[in-house]
């Protein structure tokens, strides 16, 4: 009877050690795939690079760097739609990364994917991502609430003045950051056109076309119907596209699920 | 004498009436009669209106009118009386419908009118009756089931049969000989009798599919138009159609309307002359309104549609028919090989813009890479229409010095030939190759990372300067969920909201307290008494009776000083006794405390405990 406890402890110790040993191995494998992807890219074997990057993603998930490298590989392969999709997804994880912004703009410029001129306030909002604006709004609101809470509890006039200043600054921050976050989230579920195709007037394969749409264009989904999505592009044009022709920015790897 | 005011009033009234009555009586003798026929020319299937007017009398006996080949139907009489500046006048008019039995010249014989036993005669009236259908000027007015001829005062004429309708519609195409696909501008006019309450239930629509409606005003323009002297409410639309195929087709449009029309009373005896019942006044009283659903259909207009000539048809022709001009500009004009240029192509003019496609860029074989042009944006501004196309073009070598021309082909229906427009080439300033841009594109943040050369694989996308690869994997995620779905952020928000609520409650409570300073003072006194009680207990435990009594005195002074709003230190046992009475234990305690303060008396432990108990109860009570 007295021997059972030490034996259990031994087993637990063994399992913990095994886990600790296996975790780095798994991470190492993922890192290896990522490194292999980089090496393949250097050899200009972009198809192999894409495969390695996807293997790494299966093991450790997608990181901003992985998506960025994936975007580069697609861009070098001439697959503009998937490249734009990967860059846009990378920007969701690292909205201020200059490499991602630079390459995305280069790809767009080289392929005629011009963006409409944005007003100054839209450009100002795009400095940060929607998540970052929301985080700023949340922290500002928390500080604002804390300063309000402390006001009735303190007696010194200079402390009250300081708290009032904090409350004003944080409330302004929250009021500016929250609409910026909401504007950013409006485009959270946007799609990227993966291959150049034609917009259809109705959600059927044989439906007439309303015009061509270029790969890499960002479109906003309006509604879905039996494997088709009604989308609207930046110029306000609307039309139906098959779901397989679109990549959902807010969804990693698998693209839009079949509806 | 009692009736004096009464007579005075009568005299005053008579004095005002007599001057008015005397001229009226004097004028009674000035009687004149007059007969008038309108119009004096009408068709056999139409009628005229004869009016016999007797001026200077309110009633008269009128002999029925007579005339060879003419029939007369009485339509009643109307009387008019006027008082103007004390002068009265009266007249009575008798109205008849006049119909002819045969065409030709007819004469209405003089009509005898007897007024107060004296007979007057009108003059004979001549009229001319044309054969049935010869006169295209019926009146829309309906009396006794027939149309009344109005004075021919307008150049617009209704077609035969239209007068029987409540409203009618016309379509006026601007062209009747067109080409397939050519725009045919048209005007639709819908006429309704004034006074009708019209509800348009649908826009005008084509009755057949030989034409395609290209455009139509959303709302018609409302106006009034006088047709044959009768006012009509006119609704006008402008639009255009295009013919689908070659042939001759009727252009016809229809429109659903709902009319609220006055239902007219029928007078079976109208022919036999009951002037009272024939008076339209009774229609106003007894006539109702009925809603009538009608579909107005325009008369057919034959349109001849020709096929476009096959001879000389350019391969670039995309179906544009009309009259167009072409303008082209490009930005930027200083570029390096590989830099994209946006070509703006503007097609302006009139014609079927839906078939106007983007002009064709001719530089495809001259070292230019092109992307498909945009679908075109139609802009209508101040009466002019233009379609703007954009196309991205990229020069692929440094020898290029100009942007080649673009071609646009259309068919001119006026000239009946194909017109090919070609823009002028645009001068271009070419910079050095895009090589250095590779280094310029390297962002600041990536300089710390190991530089890895990227190269273009043959056959892949254009040479684009890309920032180098990232070598660190970073933190991996499996989903791209927005921050507001993260549990920790939701918890942070909840805590912040809770803090905010508590802060609001505290601030509200603080504000409320500030409004009542007595409460604050009361709480303060309570806290001070609690503190003194604690010190008294400690003194009691340490058996320091003089200290204990001193504290008891302070407690009582504080307690009752606040209650009675006097200075606590000034409160004595005598004041307490005066207010609480001699038997109060508190008075006794304060006396002991005062004695102890002056005489340095001591008390036993039991006494201290008793006093403490009493004070504690008093403080907490």
What share of the residues of chain B does DSSP label as strand, in percent?
35-45%
Going by CATH, the architecture of the largest domain in chain A would be Alpha Horseshoe
At the fourth CATH level, what is the homologous superfamily of the largest domain in chain A? Tetratricopeptide repeat domain
Question: Biggest β-sheet of chain B: count, sense, barrel?
Answer: 5 strands, antiparallel
Mean pLDDT of chain B: 77
**Average pLDDT for all residues of chain A:** 85
| Strand order in the largest sheet of chain A | 6-5-4-1-7
The count of β-strands of chain B is: 36
Cα-atom radius of gyration of chain B: 54 Å
Helix content of chain B: 10-25%
Entry summary:
The complex is a heterodimer of chains A (259) and B (621). Chain A has 259 residues and is of the alpha+beta class.
What does it look like?
Chain A has 259 residues and is an alpha+beta fold. Chain A folds into three domains: 107 residues, Serine Threonine Protein Phosphatase 5, Tetratricopeptide repeat (Alpha Horseshoe); 66 residues; 58 residues, SH3 Domains (SH3 type barrels). Helix content of chain A is 59%, strand content 13%. In chain A, helix 1 runs antiparallel to helix 2, helix 2 packs antiparallel against helix 3 and helix 7 packs antiparallel against helix 8. Chain A starts with a helix and ends in an 11-residue tail after the last strand. Chain B starts with a helix and ends with a helix. In chain B, the strands form eleven sheets. In chain B, strands 13, 15, 18, 19 and 20 form a five-stranded antiparallel sheet that branches. In chain B, strands 25, 27, 29, 30 and 31 form a five-stranded antiparallel sheet that branches. With 621 residues, chain B is α+β, with helices and mostly antiparallel strands. Chain B has four domains: 111 residues, Immunoglobulin-like; 143 residues, Immunoglobulin-like; 123 residues, Immunoglobulins (Immunoglobulin-like), CATH 2.60.40; 104 residues, no CATH class. At the A-B interface, helix 1, helix 2, helix 3, helix 4 and helix 5 of A face helix 5 of B.
């Amino acid at each position: 009877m007295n021997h059972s406890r030490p034996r259990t402890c031994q087993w637990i110790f063994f399992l913990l050690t095994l886990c600790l040993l296996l975790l780095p191995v798994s991470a190492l494998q993922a890192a290896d795939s990522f490194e292999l992807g980089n090496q393949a890219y250097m050899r200009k074997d972009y198809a192999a690079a894409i495969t390695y990057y996807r293997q790494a993603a299966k093991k450790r998930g997608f990181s901003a760097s992985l998506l960025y490298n994936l975007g580069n590989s697609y861009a070098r392969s001439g697959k503009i739609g998937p490249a734009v999709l990967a860059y846009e997804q990378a920007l969701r994880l690292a909205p201020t990364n200059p490499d991602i912004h630079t390459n995305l703009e280069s790809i767009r410029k080289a392929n005629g994917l011009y963006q409409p001129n944005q007003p100054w306030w839209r450009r100002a909002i795009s400095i940060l991502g929607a998540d970052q604006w929301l985080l700023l709004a949340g922290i500002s609101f928390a500080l604002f609430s804390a300063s309000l809470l402390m006001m009735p509890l303190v007696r010194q006039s200079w402390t009250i003045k300081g708290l009032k200043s904090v409350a004003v600054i944080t409330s302004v921050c929250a009021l500016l950051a929250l609409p910026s976050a909401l504007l950013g989230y409006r485009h959270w579920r946007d799609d990227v056109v993966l291959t150049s195709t034609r917009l259809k007037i109705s959600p059927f394969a044989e439906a007439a076309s309303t015009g061509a749409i270029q790969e890499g264009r960002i479109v906003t989904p309006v509604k879905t119907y039996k494997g088709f999505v009604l989308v609207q592009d930046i110029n306000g044009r609307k039309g139906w596209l098959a779901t397989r022709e679109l990549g959902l920015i807010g969804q990693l790897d698998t693209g839009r699920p079949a509806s | 004498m009692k009736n004096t005011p009464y007579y005075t009033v009568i005299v005053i009234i008579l004095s005002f009436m007599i001057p008015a009555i005397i001229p009226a009586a004097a004028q009674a003798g000035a009687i004149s009669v007059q007969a008038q026929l309108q119009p004096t020319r009408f068709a056999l299937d139409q009628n005229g209106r004869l009016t016999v007017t007797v001026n200077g009398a309110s009633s008269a006996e009128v002999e029925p009118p007579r005339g060879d080949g003419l029939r007369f139907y009485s339509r009643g009489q109307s009387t008019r009386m006027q008082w103007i500046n004390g002068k009265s006048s009266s007249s009575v008019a008798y109205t008849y419908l006049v119909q002819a039995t045969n065409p030709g010249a007819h004469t209405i014989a003089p009509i005898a009118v007897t007024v107060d036993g004296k007979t007057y005669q009108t003059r004979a009236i001549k009229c001319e009756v044309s054969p049935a259908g010869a006169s295209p000027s019926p009146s829309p007015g309906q009396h006794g089931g027939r149309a009344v001829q109005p004075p021919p005062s307008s150049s617009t004429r209704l077609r035969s049969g239209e007068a029987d309708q409540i409203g009618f519609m016309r379509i006026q195409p601007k062209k009747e000989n067109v080409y397939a696909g050519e725009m045919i501008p048209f005007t639709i006019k819908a006429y309704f009798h004034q006074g009708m309450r019209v509800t348009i239930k649908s826009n005008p629509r084509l009755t057949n599919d030989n034409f395609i409606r290209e455009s139509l005003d959303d709302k018609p323009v409302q106006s009034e138009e006088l047709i044959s002297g009768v006012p009509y409410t006119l609704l006008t639309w402008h639009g255009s159609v295009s013919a689908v195929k070659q042939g001759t087709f009727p252009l016809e449009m229809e429109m659903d309307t709902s009319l609220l029309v006055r239902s007219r009373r029928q007078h079976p005896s109208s022919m036999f002359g009951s002037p009272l019942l024939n008076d339209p006044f009774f229609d106003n009283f007894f006539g109702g309104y009925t809603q009538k659903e009608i579909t107005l259909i325009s008369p057919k207009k034959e349109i001849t549609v020709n096929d476009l000539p096959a001879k000389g048809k350019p391969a670039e022709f995309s179906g544009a028919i009309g009259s167009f001009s072409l303008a082209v500009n490009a930005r930027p004009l200083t570029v390096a090989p590989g830099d994209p240029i946006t070509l703006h192509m503007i097609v302006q003019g009139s014609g079927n813009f839906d078939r106007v496609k983007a002009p064709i860029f001719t530089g495809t074989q001259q070292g230019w890479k092109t992307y498909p042009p945009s679908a075109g944006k139609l802009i209508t501004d101040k009466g002019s229409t233009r379609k703007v196309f954009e196309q991205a073009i990229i020069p692929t070598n440094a020898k290029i010095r100009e942007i080649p021309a673009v071609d646009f082909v259309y068919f001119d229906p006026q000239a009946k030939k194909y017109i090919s427009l070609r823009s002028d080439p645009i001068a271009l300033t070419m910079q050095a190759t895009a090589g250095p841009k590779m280094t310029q594109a390297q962002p600041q943040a990536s300089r710390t990372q190991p530089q890895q050369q990227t190269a273009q694989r043959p056959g892949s996308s254009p040479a684009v300067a890309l920032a180098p690869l990232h070598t660190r994997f970073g933190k991996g995620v499996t989903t791209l969920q927005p921050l507001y779905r993260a549990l920790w952020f939701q918890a942070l928000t909840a805590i912040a909201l809770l803090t905010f609520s508590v802060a609001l409650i505290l601030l509200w409570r603080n504000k409320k307290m500030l409004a009542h300073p007595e409460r604050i003072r009361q709480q303060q006194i309570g806290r001070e008494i609690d503190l003194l009680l604690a010190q008294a207990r400690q003194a009691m435990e340490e058996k320091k009776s003089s200290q204990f009594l001193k504290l008891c005195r302070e407690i009582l002074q504080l307690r009752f000083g606040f209650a009675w709003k006097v200075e606590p230190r000034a409160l004595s046992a005598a004041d307490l006794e005066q207010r609480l009475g001699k038997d109060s234990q508190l008075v006794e305690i304060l006396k002991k405390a005062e004695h102890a303060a002056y005489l340095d008396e001591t008390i036993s432990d039991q006494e201290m405990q008793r006093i403490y108990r009493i004070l504690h109860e008093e403080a907490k009570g």
